């Protein structure tokens, strides 16, 4: 979904667009974190992490917080 944001450097917009994905994973007992976004310069593919809800995510830095 964030493909239309490629190379725009608008990682916050990507975060907002991925809200559906976060809610979907939350509904089935997981957490969805975008680690790298196509909106960032030179990133061609989003990199995400999916973990069981409640699992430690302290090692994950969401793309929109970098």
Q: Which descriptors apply to this entry?
A:
alpha+beta; 2 helices; two-stranded antiparallel ribbon; 20% strand
Strand content: 15-25%
Q: Reading side by side through the largest sheet, how are the strands ordered?
A: 1-2
Judged by helices, strands and strand pairing, the structural class is alpha+beta
The biggest sheet, with number of strands, parallel, antiparallel or mixed sense and barrel status, is:
2 strands, antiparallel
Distance between the termini: 20 Å
Outline the low-pLDDT stretches. none
Mean pLDDT: 89
Radius of gyration: 12 Å
Task: Give the assembly state of these chains.
Answer: single chain
General form:
globular
What's the β-strand tally?
2
Work out the helicity level. Answer: 10-25%
How many alpha or pi helices? 2
């Amino acid at each position: 979904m964030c493909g239309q944001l490629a190379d725009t450097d608008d990682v916050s917009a990507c975060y907002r667009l991925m809200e559906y994905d976060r809610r979907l994973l939350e509904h089935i007992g997981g957490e969805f974190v975008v680690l790298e976004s196509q909106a960032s310069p030179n990133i061609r593919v989003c990199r995400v992490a999916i973990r069981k809800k409640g699992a430690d995510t302290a090692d994950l830095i969401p793309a929109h917080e970098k």
